[in-house]
Design a protein that fits this description.
189 residues; 71% helix
Length: 189
Amino acid sequence: MVLPQHSGDLVAAAFMKARWMCRDALSRKSRMSAAELLLGHAAEIAGSADGRDQLLSLGLSAGAADIVAGRPPLDAPPSVTLTRGRILSSGEARRFAESNRAAHDAAVRLTIEIAGDAARFESDPGTLRRSLRAVAALQAALWPAPEIPAGGETRMAMMLSAPLLLEKAGGHRLSAKFNALAARVSRQS
């Protein structure tokens, strides 16, 4: 498996996956059943703080709308507003985290999950760092996008995950404070 190296690659990969899922659903179900299945899956992942899931949810919803309208699904991917997201400094992230512990805990869990998944597929440290930086950039650029289905706490977790992913991508071990927090969050899950 080749991991995307840039946030634009992540956007394209999410929409290609959505297109494939739409076509697969249409090959096995009636148009209306396929659309309902896709909308159900889109709703399931709409609460995920992973920007890739947010893009997939957006793509599946758009694909379902295309199917209902009798159009081929996702011939043109949906538009999404990606800002040149500035990743918070660790101090800014701490201040936000103090006011929303649940979003911070979700960001910690997401960072652990993304870094673990990436490490399973990539053994080259340089490629792994670039992949994690791409996900961090996507998280920072996507959380304010009005098109994604994420709610407020999910958006906050997306925003807070970007500096954690960037720290992990730096090749440094995450701080002892982060590791202690990650252990506490894992026990609560």
